[in-house]
Each structure stands twice: as C-alpha cells, then as structure tokens.
Amino acid sequence: MYLSQLNLKRMDRRAMKTLADVYRLHQLVMKGFAAYSSTDRVLYRVEPEERNGQVTVLVQSLQIPDWSCFTDGNSGVASARVKDFSTTFKVGDTYNFRLRANPVVTRDGKRHGLIRDESLLEWLGKKETTVGARFCSMSVIDEGYVTGTKGNQEKQHRMSLKVARFEGTLEVVDPVVFAETFSSGIGPAKAFGCGLLSLARG
Questions:
Q1: CA-to-CA distance for 100 and 97, rounded, in angstroms?
Q2: Is residue 158's pLDDT more than 80?
Q3: What is the pTM of this model?
Q4: What is the pLDDT, as a whole number, of residue 105?
Q5: Which residue has the higher pLDDT, 108 or 81?
Q6: What is the DSSP letter of 97?
Q7: 2-16, 31-45, 99-113 — which is least confidently predicted?
Q8: DSSP-assigned beta bridge partners for residue 159
Q9: Is residue 75 pLDDT above 90, yes or no?
Q10: What torsion, rounded to 10 degrees, do the Cα atoms 174, 124, 86, 31 define?
Q11: Which of 48-52, 108-112, 172-176, 189-193 has the weakest average pLDDT?
Q12: What is the DSSP string of 33-66?
C-alpha cells in the first residue's frame, strides 16, 4: 500500500480552483494513476490544517502513483511525495483515527445528508457491526457541503456532497474485517475525497 502527500499552494489560482471543486480535485489526484489501464481503490482527503500557506491532500492507494506530472509547476502543486507501507492488525489494538466521510441516509431511493451532530455520530456508530472495530470515543465536525461540476460546456452536472470529519479512538475487534475497511474506506463518495481512515497509535 502507498501513502502520498500532495501539497497545494493555497494562494495559487489553479490550486484554489481545484480545492473549490470536488470533481477537479478528483481529476488532479487521478493524474498520478494515468499509467494504469484500471485503477484499484484510491482514497484521499484534504487535511484541515494549513502549513506555510499550503494545503495537504493525503492519498492512499494499492498501486504506486507517479507524481512526476506535477513537476512543471502548472497545477498549483508545490510538492508531492510517496512512501510504501504495510500494516497488520490484532484484536485489541487501539488507534487514534481521523475520517472525512459522506454521512447520508437513503429515503425513497434518494440520498439525504445528515446535519445534526447526534445523527452524524449515530451514523458512524452504526458501522461498528461492519468495519471490524469498536469506536471507543469520537467527535464530529460538520463541514457542510462541498460542490463540483462534472461534464463539458454542452452538458454539466452539478455535484453537492455532505461531508463531516470524525476523530476519536477505536479498538480492533476483527483484524481481517478491519484490514479490509482500512484498505477500502468507509461510506460513500470515496471517489470525491471521502472514506479515508487514517490511524495513529495512541
């Protein structure tokens, strides 16, 4: 597995356009995987912290990306680096976690974003039965909606996604299931910056 860090210049016009449009950001991230005829799960997340006027986008992938496409400086990307890593999980392992997710419920065949903090926490809590972990503590920051435009000048589709950032601690219950969760992400809208579960030892 590979973890990349893309640093975008916040005040660069191209970077600002990319960060303001979830589809543009998806296209930017996928440039690193252009050499592959098919792409396995790529997860990414825009980090809330800014450092030295730069915004960090974390990218987790099963295939190694090639970020040399950004060396010309025409994309607003200040730097890009990648490292490979592997991890194993055991029952009882505890981690601090961060997750940016698209918390929704389906009613009448349509997805609706959740808005109240208690509803957001309940949404993630209910996933304990399928992710292979128990959430020991968690807090949530409602980040509202992110938008984007997909298509060309003749036909455009406006996208709007509800997003929330969860942080807290978790305990591994089923290592096999949790390893799959870690690799594949949590919740919908994974192609648009949601679902990446980041872990750190407590």
A1: 10
A2: yes
A3: 0.92
A4: 83
A5: 81
A6: E
A7: 99-113
A8: 148
A9: no
A10: 150
A11: 108-112
A12: GTT-SS---EEEEEEEEEETTEEEEEEEESS---
What is the rounded CA–CA span in Å between residue 61 and residue 35? Answer: 14
Say how many C-beta atoms besides its own lie within 10 A of residue 17's C-beta: 12
Please provide the DSSP assignment of 128-185 as one string. Answer: HHHHSEEEEEEEEEEEEEEEEEEE-SSSEEEEEEEEEEEEEEEEES-HHHHHHHHHH-
Helix (H) or strand (E) holding 125: helix 117-125
Query: What whole-number distance in Å separates Cα of residue 59 and Cα of residue 3?
Result: 6
- Of the candidates 128, 60, 94, the one whose C-alpha atom is nearest the C-alpha of residue 200 is 94
How many other C-beta atoms lie within 10 A of the C-beta of residue 161? 19
**Amino acid at site 103:** P
Q: If 0-12 CB within 10 Å is exposed, 13-18 middle and 19+ buried, where does residue 150 land?
A: middle
Q: Which amino acid is at 176?
A: V
